[in-house]
């Protein structure tokens, strides 16, 4: 059969993703090279006719494509173009077609996951593995997909807001089994589980809250800096992956007069907890003058990504703040970056913990003076900021 680059790309991607929507094929294989819709349609029609691929659905923008028997033969001859790197791997280790077939009811779920990965592949290089191939490199793990970069392993969970309590419990059980395995113990890269909220969950927070509550109940002992969950819609997660908010926060606190350092500590200081940053006023750090701030020393976390580890640290704050005080004879505060004030209120209520040692700030509030930018949440869900730079006298907003 005659070789063309587009045939090779499409069959390779359909093998790795197991299905793709028409929109994804056009956007990520044709449009990004300036090729026309007509060329895409003609190519797909020809490939279906040649038996390389199979089409599900009648209308173009509601259709899904899958690799067929001749498509598998094509890849055995030419190898597989890898998603995320464009390297070509040998084809001798291909799974049989029967192993990668997908149920029609899962097509939308699988195509949504593929769209997320293809969008991500436009920004960085990585290795991608679908659920069917993960066991070959990471026995015991069963996420929907796996992205491996230089610094992280990202477990991908495409959540279409359709899985019920029993299915979710099975998922958490599989995670617990993996986290107790030799393979996890020997891993040298931290894992971030990205929960991609699709379906009806994209405009509601209810699904996110349910997932976080389930995870904190089932996987509480395992959540830490090495293994953490992050939640968001596709757009939210791409913003989170850039870590822009964390970088902005570090720069702004430097302008406020703080030395910002890494938040990794010996377990004796915080009972094993780590944070994004540790901040101390420069005057105190340099021992030039006595401190006037009530917030002269703090640990900091970015919660704009709704990550599970920060959520659990709020629940455990009374413990680690007490451990630090007993060890150092100093009080320390906890500053958390949130997207908006309501997120701070919800976090405190869901974690069922309120404290005058926990402060919040948003990216939008960074344009204020420090005493006005910082705020706290009380037991009734009211928000308070401070009157002047000693950050001691609070006023309601």
Explain what the structure shows.
By secondary structure, the chain is an alpha+beta fold. Helices cover 41% and strands 20% of the residues. The protein has helices at residues 5-17, 22-30, 37-49, 69-78, 97-100, 107-121, 131-134, 165-179, 182-185, 206-218, 234-241, 244-255, 267-270, 282-285, 308-315, 317-328, 341-351, 370-373; strands at residues 20-21, 53-56, 64-67, 80-81, 88-89, 127-130, 145-148, 153-159, 191-197, 227-232, 258-263, 275-281, 297-302, 333-338, 358-362, 376-377, 383-386, 394-396. The strands form five sheets. The chain has a five-stranded mixed beta sheet with strand order 6-7-8-9-10. The chain has a five-stranded mixed beta sheet with strand order 11-12-13-14-15. A hairpin with a 4-residue loop joins strand 7 (145-148) and strand 8 (153-159). Helix 1 (5-17) packs across helix 4 and helix 8 packs across helix 10.
Relative strand content? 15-25%
Low-confidence stretches: none
Largest sheet: 5 strands, mixed
Computed over alpha carbons, the radius of gyration is 25 Å
Total beta-strand segments: 18
Structural class: alpha+beta
Gross geometry? elongated
- The residue-averaged pLDDT reads 91
Distance separating the two termini: 71 Å
Q: What's the number of helices?
A: 18
Order of strands in the sheet with the most strands?
A: 6-7-8-9-10
Helix content: 40-55%
């Amino acid at each position: 059969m005659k070789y063309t680059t587009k045939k090779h790309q499409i069959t390779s991607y359909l093998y790795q993703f197991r299905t793709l929507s028409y929109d994804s094929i056009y956007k990520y294989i044709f449009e990004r090279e300036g090729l026309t819709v007509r060329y895409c349609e003609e190519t797909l029609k020809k490939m279906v006719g040649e038996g390389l691929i199979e089409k599900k659905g009648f209308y173009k923008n509601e259709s899904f494509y899958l690799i067929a028997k001749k498509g598998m033969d094509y890849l055995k001859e030419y190898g597989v173009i890898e998603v995320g790197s464009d390297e070509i791997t040998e084809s001798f280790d291909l799974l049989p077609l029967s192993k990668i077939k997908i149920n029609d009811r899962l097509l939308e779920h699988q195509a949504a996951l593929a769209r997320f990965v293809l969008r991500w592949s436009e920004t960085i290089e990585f290795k991608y593995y679908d659920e069917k191939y993960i066991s070959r490199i990471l026995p015991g793990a069963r996420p929907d997909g796996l992205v491996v970069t230089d610094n992280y392993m990202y477990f991908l969970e495409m959540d279409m807001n359709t899985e019920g309590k029993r299915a979710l419990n099975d998922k958490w059980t599989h995670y617990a089994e993996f986290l107790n395995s030799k393979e996890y113990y020997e891993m040298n890269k931290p894992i971030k589980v990205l929960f991609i909220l699709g379906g009806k969950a994209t405009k509601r927070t209810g699904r996110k809250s349910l997932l976080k509550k389930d995870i904190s109940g089932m996987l509480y002992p395992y959540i830490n800096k090495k293994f953490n969950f992050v939640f968001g819609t596709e757009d939210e997660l791409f913003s989170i992956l850039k870590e822009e908010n964390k970088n902005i926060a570090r720069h702004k606190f430097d302008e406020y007069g703080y030395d910002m350092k890494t938040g990794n500590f010996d377990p004796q200081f915080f009972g094993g907890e780590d944070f994004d940053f540790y901040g101390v006023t420069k005057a105190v750090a340099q021992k030039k003058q006595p401190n006037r701030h009530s917030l002269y020393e703090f640990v900091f976390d970015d919660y704009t990504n709704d990550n599970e580890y920060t959520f659990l640290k709020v629940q455990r704050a009374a413990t680690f703040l007490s451990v630090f005080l007993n060890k150092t004879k100093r009080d320390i505060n906890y500053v958390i970056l949130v997207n908006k004030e309501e997120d701070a209120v919800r976090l405190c209520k869901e974690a069922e913990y309120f404290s005058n040692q926990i402060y919040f700030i948003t990216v939008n509030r960074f344009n204020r003076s420090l005493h006005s930018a910082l705020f706290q949440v009380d037991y009734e869900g009211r928000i308070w900021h401070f009157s002047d730079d000693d950050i001691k006298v609070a006023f309601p907003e």
